[in-house]
Amino acid sequence: MDEMLGLDFVPIKALCSSLVKVLRRKGKIAEAFSLVNKLGKLGIIPNLFSYNALMNPLCKEGKLDEAVLLFRKMRKKGLVPNDITYSILVDSMSKNGKLDVALILLGKMAEEGVKSTVYPYTSLINGCCRSGILNKAESLFDEMINKGLTPTVVTYTSLIDGYCKERNMREAFRIYHMMSERGVSPNIHTFTVLIGGLCHANIMVEADKLFQEMLEKNVIPNEITYNVMIDGYCRIGNTVRGFELLDEMIEKGLIPSTHTYRPLISGLCSTGRVSESKDFIDGLQKEDNKLNDICFTTLIDGYCKE
Questions:
Q1: Are 264 and 229 in contact (CB under 8 A)?
Q2: pLDDT above 90: residue 262
Q3: For the CA atoms of the chain, what is the radius of gyration?
Q4: Which end of the chain, N or C, is more open, meaning fewer C-beta atoms within 10 Å of its C-beta?
């Protein structure tokens, strides 16, 4: 590109945009910005795709101020942001807790006649749920449906997760049944979130029922699902079932981690079987399993309570 400019050749927009895309894919964001600025001085404006492509990595890296600056610069050059531009910004603002800014951006989409999609709404609903603002999340959910948008499994799961964190399992299951009635199939994350909510509420009979329902629906549990179940059973002192689940996940080729072992160690200690907990840890270390400080602290605490 520098050689072309040095010879007074003016590249076409398509070529410029392709170069920006290549640089972004290679992670050379600084070079991509430099190219955009250099072309801007020559009166060559990369297309909207190029700006979106630059904005996305900035947002993923948490450089929100730079992303907003790029957004403003793009508008000054006469480019009109589309639904992708807004979705990128709304998602980033929502993930970083800047819900007020995300809501303003969603409003601007409507003001400027940019057709809404499910993505910015889902991002905002997820952000509201993570911040514990469930009433706003429900309001946005109703708003998107009124606009004719169809919630995805991610939208429903975000609401379910929000209610589970609030220990409101009644509302969590209301959303779960709603998504099923509307033909949206729950995925592994949906089931894991619900099972986790039941485990934290010590409702293990229902957690096990849901675990079995998940299997019947051919949704395969992952490491996180098993970790949640193991933790739930160990919380109520049923380490036998906890170790059965450990064996089961290993048989299925899943790899246990510290998050798997910690509740088992804690469960043994809390039921007065500290020596068994010590033997379990020794066995894990002999097999070169990595344990964090919490595992050892739990064991020490168990000895102190004996």
A1: no
A2: yes
A3: 25
A4: C
